[in-house]
Amino acid sequence: MQALLSFENAPPFAAPLRFFLTAPLFAVLAGLLVAVEGPAVFASRWMPAALAATHLVTIGFMLQIMLGALIQILPVVAGANLGRPLLVARIVHAGLSGGALLLAGGFLFGRPLLLSAAALLLALTALIFLGTTLRALIGVPSTSPTIRGLKLALLGLAGVVGLGALMALGLAHGWALPLAALTDLHAGWGLGAWAGVLLAALAYVVVPMFQLTPGYPARPSWWFPVAMLALLLLWSAAVLADWPVLVRLVQWLAALAGIVFAGLTLRLQGQRRRARPDATYAYWQFGLIASILALFMLSTATVWPAAADLAGWTLSFGILMIAGGFMSFMIGMLYKIVPFLAWMHLQNSGQARVPAPNMNRILADLAMQRQMKAHAAACGLLLLGAVWPDWFARPAGLAFAFASGWLGWNLLGAVRRYRWHAADIAAKLAAR
Predict the structure, then answer these.
(1) If phi over 0 gives left and psi between -120 and 50 gives alpha, with beta otherwise, what is residue 110?
(2) Does residue 200 sit in helix, strand or coil?
């Protein structure tokens, strides 16, 4: 099942594009930070450089793309027209970019003022975005699993930002907080209730649309977002009540739900009607396999807690889940969404008198396939760095920065070609 699409409601191209073009720069910064800091980044997930690099990716890259995608998708999929989308995009983009840099700086240099400023700026930015989107969604019925998933994902966003702001302020001011338990819960809200639910809601549309697969079955499509949000609420209650056994049970169930969704998506991809696999398909295959491995590690640690103390275990889980999984999904979607939006806006500017160029002329599949290989190699080096940091930490950081910079170059190339074709269409219309 999937929602009906209303492309006439799409916002201006510049609204989501600013997020998509900025995101790779933060990933480049994260890679360069790993390269500069070297083995120290992989010593522990609590190292300042590891925290800074993680949040450069999760906020600077992932959150940028997710909010940019929502600004584009909410009007098209849900009919939720944002008031003044360009202004909202400018404010949210500036807040996210500044907040990510402040937070990374606060972690890296141990500056309480930077942590406090980042927490307040990111919380305010999230409130502005949530207020705008919730206002647009008022009265929109949940007529598809995608629409309901988008609504529930916004609750997940509120949860992860709220917890993150609490911990950043707690670190800055020395509050007595159970930081280890809250950090795991924060990651659960971010990767499960926010990114996981949003990814599923979007997958219900983009996987059948762009990869030409059958639609997702109705029942799991409706219930996966609800189940994931309910599990995170139960996890939060277990942390408040200090019930570690319940925490591990919820983590196991959340991992199982994620594995089931990933397995279902793999099965649908095996039934695709497109004969030749493209870069998006390859990215999703890579991301699904990496996610399943990461979730298997999580489920193993819930029944064998000592596994989390093994050298490189927790860092490997994070690399597989974030760089291998979510980043791969998002890059794969960018490689379809950006050329498609460019083609759609060129089609509209042509006024049915001048045809738009083929999407492959805006962004060639060969360039995407080559960049995907660089990303996969970087993920492999990061995993090696988690186990043998003295040998692989710096090469992994450089490889990650290179692959992310290549992504930015490909997207910029698509924008340059879009602008050239737009000018060409305008000239042809003026000549008629």
Answers:
(1) left
(2) helix
CA–CA dist 324, 328 (Å, integer): 6
Return the CATH number at 269.
1.20.210.10
Alpha carbon 5 to its chain centroid, in Å, reads 22
d(CA 367, CA 332): 13
In a domain, 301, yes or no: yes
- In Å, how far are 19, 72, 146, 175 from 338, measured between CA atoms? 11, 11, 20, 44
Place of tokens 């994620």: 258
Against a cut of 0.90, is the pTM above it? yes
Q: Are residues 303 and 315 in contact, defined by beta-carbon separation less than 8 angstroms?
A: no
Q: Domain count of the chain?
A: 1
- In this structure, how many other beta carbons lie within 10 angstroms of the beta carbon of residue 112? 14
In a domain, residue 1? The reply is no
- Which token pair is 66? 């997710």
Q: What is the mean pLDDT of the chain?
A: 92
Q: Is 311 left (phi over 0), alpha (psi -120 to 50) or beta?
A: beta
The two structure tokens encoding residue 84: 């003044």
Please check whether residue 143 is in contact with residue 151, taking contact to mean a CB–CB distance below 8 angstroms: no
Q: Which of 36, 70, 30, 66 has the alpha carbon at shortest distance from 51? A: 30
Question: How far is Cα 150 from Cα 78, in angstroms, rounded to an integer?
Answer: 9
Query: 212 lies in which domain range?
Result: 7-431
Residue 93: φ, ψ to 5°: -60, -45
Contact 189, 319 (CB under 8 A): no
Tokens of 331: 């890059």
Q: Is residue 2 part of a domain?
A: no
| Count of positions (residues) in the chain | 432
Give pLDDT tens digits for 39-96.
999 998 899 999 999 999 999 999 999 999 999 988 888 777 888 899 999 999 999 9
Burial of 296 (0-12, 13-18, 19+ CB in 10 A): middle
